[in-house]
Structures are given as structure tokens and as C-alpha cells.
Amino acid sequence: MEALRLILLYAHLIGFALLLGGAVTQYIAKPLRINSAMVWGAGIQVLTGLGLAAPLRGGGDAEPDPAKLAVKGVIGLMIFVMAFFSRKRDVVNTGHFLALVGLTLVNAAVAVFWR
Q1: Which DSSP string corresponds to 65-83?
Q2: H helical segments located in 1-115
Q3: Main-chain dihedrals φ then ψ at residue 21, nearest 5 degrees
Q4: What is the pLDDT of residue 64?
Q5: 76 and 107 Cβ atoms separated by less than 8 Å
Q6: Integer distance in angstroms from the first to the last C-alpha of the chain?
Q7: How many Cα atoms are found within 13 Å in the side-chain-facing hemisphere of 78?
Q8: Cα–Cα dist 4/106, whole Å
Q9: Which is nearest to 35 in space by CA: 98, 91, 94, 74?
């Protein structure tokens, strides 16, 4: 079970790298739009996040706080929806794009700092 958790965690980090790396690349390249790396990264993040949270429902000391899982899930879904439904636009509003990046960073901060 630990091997599966580590594989999911690795894939989760790859999703984060795709999402944030795609956003930084697009921000530098201009015009602001949602590229495929961002959409794939957001999707990978949601799916692997569900996989990481699901087997932990057995109880015990190592189980994460359900409130933390709910917050991360809601933020992750918001990121995915913002990326998925804006992916075909030629140009995305700057506020929308920066909100997507900000939510990505907030989600990572929740994962690291919420104990």
C-alpha cells in the first residue's frame, strides 16, 4: 500500500509541476491563455489527490484532517474548472489567469503548512 501511495504522490507532484510550469511559461510567452500543460496538470492533481485521500479513510494517527482534505478538494476542483472551461479561449483575462496561479500556490501551501 505504501508503494501505491508513493506512486500517487509522485504523480501528484508531476501534476503540480505541469500546472505551475505551464502557467509560468504562458505568462512569459504572452498572450495569457490556458495551455494544455495547465489543463493536464489540473486534471492529474484532482485525480491523484482523490487517490491519495481515499485509502486513508481507515482511521489512525496518520490520517489527515478531513477539513484539510475538503479545502484541498474544493480548491483543486476550482483550479480544474477554471482551467478546463477556459482552455479554448484565445486570450484569458489577467485576473482569471492570476487567480488560477494564486489558487495553485494556496493549494500547495495548504498541503505543506496545515498539520
Answers
A1: PHHHHHHHHHHHHHHHHHH
A2: 2-29, 36-53, 66-84, 94-113
A3: -65, -40
A4: 78
A5: yes
A6: 22
A7: 17
A8: 26
A9: 91
Write down the residue that cell numbers 482511521 correspond to.
Answer: 59
Residue at grid coordinates 500547495: 108
Q: Provide the 8-state DSSP code for 87.
A: T
Is-contact 19 42, C-beta < 8 A?
yes
CA distance 1 to 14: 20
Residue pLDDT, tens place only, 15-58: 999 999 999 999 999 999 999 999 999 999 999 999 998 866 56
Cell of 18: 505541469
As a residue count, the chain comes to 115
Is this prediction's pTM over 0.85? yes
